[in-house]
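User: Before I run my own analysis I want an independent prediction to cross-check against. Here's the chain; please return only the structure tokens and, at the end, one sentence I can use as a sanity check.
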Amino acid sequence: MDKSIKFDKETAESIGVESAIILNWIKEREEYKTIKIVDAFKEFSFWNETDLMSFLISLEQKNLIGLDLDKKTIFKAGSRKKKNSMQMNKVHERSQISKTWRPSEDVVEILTRSGMEEDFLESLIPEFVIYWSERADVLVSYNSKFIEHARLKWAQHSAEIETKTNPTVISENWEPSEDCMDIIEMAGIDNNFVEESLPEFKLYWKEDGRASVSWDSKFINFIKKRASFFDGAAVKQNKPSFNWYNPYEDENDKKKSNNKILENLRKKHKI
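Assistant: Structure tokens:
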């Protein structure tokens, strides 16, 4: 039995390799008026169901196939009821996303079947609409993009839940993790500045007494705000590290001055 994957090169250049592979597979089944979606899942087992359904929806939106999610079947474009020419042309027109846009029922069903919560999907719609309404480029269909967007957000959401632990107060020997330091370094903030800032961060939260799920996240936000406040003095450049004290102050006044600076910082950044 031939297990090779076939597709038309010109079709792939037009609609993408994945869609071209699926379309060729459907066309090869000329003897069938309809094909069960489950058969497609078996044939293309190297794709997960969500990916495969997004490819099928994309083909349907291009009027290359038909989908009946109630009967869980795929049918060829020639076997569906003909739409009038105005409707056909409208499908292929690129248009700006409307303020009232919503994903189709098919898309919602596909995503909920993959394990996503419907309330979670609803919460993504306003952000998605705002993002695409502010972009200069427009799409033929926003359903496929929404599937990609939802899958990414769901993965992030799931990862947060899996890694979430009980809140804890900051410990005396707390240090930012390697991942935390990598993120700060990628932001271009000097290590010396970070080391100078760490005691203040720990002292504040130790005295505050509140617990947190992630001290790394709080520290990253603290460092970024602090670096921004000091107008780039903390950014990696050939500059001297920030001097906390006024060099013209007497030694006895430095501590008072420093405490005042810290108090102003806390008020400004609400920390």
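Sanity check: Residues 178-269 form one domain.
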